[in-house]
Structures are given as C-alpha cells and as structure tokens.
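Q: Could you predict the 3D structure of Major facilitator superfamily (MFS) profile domain-containing protein?
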Amino acid sequence: AFSIFGAFGGLGAVVGILLAGGLIASIGWVWIFRISAIAALILLALSVIVIPVTPAKAEKAKVDYLGAITATAGVTGIVYYIITGVEYGWGNAKTIPVFVVALALVALFIFIESRVHSPLMPLRIWKIKSFTTSVVLAFVSMAKFQGIIYYANMTFQEVYEWSPIKTALGFLVHALLAVIVFAVLGRILPRLPLKPLILTGFLLRSGTALMFSFVNEHT
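A: Sure. Here are the predicted structure tokens for Major facilitator superfamily (MFS) profile domain-containing protein:
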C-alpha cells in the first residue's frame, strides 16, 4: 500500500509539473489553479458515488469549533505576516498588528485545548518524546524541501533563463526518482530499522540544501 501510494504521488508530481509548464507556456498560469479546482470538483462528485456511506453513530461527535477557528485564524495571520513582511517590512504598521493578533489567537488556541473535553489537539500528545521529535523533524525537513524547490525554480528561470517547459523538465529527475524510490521502499521498508533510515534521509536533505547554497550562474 505504501509503495503504491508513493508511486502514484511521484507520478502525480511528474504529470503536475509537465502540465503546469505547458499551461504557463500556452494559456496562462491562472489555469493551473482553475484546472485544480475543476479536478477537485470531479473527484468530489465521484467520491459521492464510490465511497460507501457509513451508518450514523448513535453518539453525536463533539467538535472543537473554537479550537479550529482560533488555530486556523492564528496560523493564517502568521503566514500573512511572513508573506507581507518581505514587501512592507517586518515592523510596518500593516504587518505588526496582524502578527500580534495571530500570536494571541495561537495562545488562545492552546488555552482552549487545555480546557475543552474533546480538544482538536490534546496537549498530552506533546509529552510523548517520539511524537514531539517527529513533528520538529518533519517541520525542518519540509521547510528545507520547499525552500529548495522554490530556489531551484528561481535558478532555472531567473538565472538560466529557462522557459516554463524546460523548467518543468528540470524537475523530472526528482519526480521520476520519487516513483522508483517509493516503489522500492514499499517493499523493503518493513525489513529495515526505521531510525537509521530516517536519519539518512534527513542527512541527505541537509546535504542537498548545503549544495544548493553554492549554486550560481556557472553551475
């Protein structure tokens, strides 16, 4: 199941990258989002037909609405501050108030989670060492990965002056290898010790980030 999921994820990356390059080069970048929306609606319609309806539970589920609202608004505010801070300045009157409110909402979210009976994020899970470590590693790892993707895209188009199609083809190495590696890992992963595998992957990403720091127009 893991190998199939990973392989289809890699194939999706290949198709998405090539499709995005083709759309940018032809009818415009906005169609990347329009086609994504159309595809999502088609999948939604298919899911109504394909996914079986489970019987309703006798006990009504309790939803942490306040936690959901404060967490979403808080994180959105922090993202807004990071994005607009580059343009307006980190201490600008347009950004600082939003950041302060966002932090207050995150703090309120934590307070709510410590009080409600059915919290969205039970605070006790942070006492589990493996969980906390995994979340921190995932955060740092994905931050590096997305940074590298963004930096590579800028290098291809702004430094090398590649076209959108050629830029898309530049990412094919990563996408195709993802298909192969996930398919192989799905077979051998159950027989491998997990911790060394995670550490190896983390070190490879760190090495990649370091290599990218030396890239210039002559690389």
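Q: Anything worth pointing out?
A: The two ends are 39 Å apart (CA to CA).
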